[in-house]
Amino acid sequence: MCSRKLAEIQLQLCTPALTAVVPEEQTPRMYLRVGPLGGEGMGSVLQHFKQSIVLSQVLDSSLHFGWNEVWDHRYSQSEIYNANAESQTLNVTKACRVQDFIPHEDRDVVVRGWCAGEDSAIARLDEVRTRMADCTGILDTEVDEMGRHRASAGTDISTHDFYGSMNFPDIARILTDLRAFSSNPLEITIAMEEADRAVIALLNLEAEEYTLLYSPQTQALDDLRVLSRSDVLLLGESSYGVLTHLLAPPGLTIVKGGGLGKFRNTSGFGRHVVYLDDYKAEDIELLRRSQLE
Hints:
- The protein is built from 11 helices and 10 strands.
- By secondary structure, the protein is α/β, with parallel strands linked by helices.
């Protein structure tokens, strides 16, 4: 025991004292959103800069707001939000503008994809972060993140089951409504067993306008997951359609029929169900509401 203790003492004496070097904590570079936030209240105005919150985090920066207007409710949203951030000045040694790295038309899709864990969006923002690594300050000149909408539509076409899918004229009519809603090109996904592009041509869609899912049975679940990611689903009362709807994120499902009751009590968590007989073009606004939830 004594020899062990002596050895420990000797080791302590022979070991040079190490002074812990604590790295100086650096203040994150400023991410300055220079556009107005709008005149809504504190809760609603958050919808106008959700993308800026995500991008500032991805780019390892501290979000600040540069618009200090006082609206009718007698306070400035910028002042309140900036009060929670450390006082900072934009370092313009090499200031970079977000829009030069993420084009306006890509922003919504990329940010939503990153939040949903999509590999392509994560890879895209990783690339942007690398390219902006030496930017000393970041400017975001987006005017209003709510000023545009994007939409994707998915449908399951069955040529064997009358109740299993929506009629082509109704699909075409709703796609027209969605194109008016979306300022970006409409993303269309079609699932079809025994796929036949000649049949799909009845929708007056060019081949490059849609993605066709027709995997073998062993990969049917993969097709189901892809179809379910659509903002708007156009379905009949097939069991496949119900499952697609139940897997879907917040959005809108338009259902032909309803007599079988398969979609009863399935609205919730931001996913809205509208039956085709009750559908009006104005119902597309439910999609905008779900995108804010």
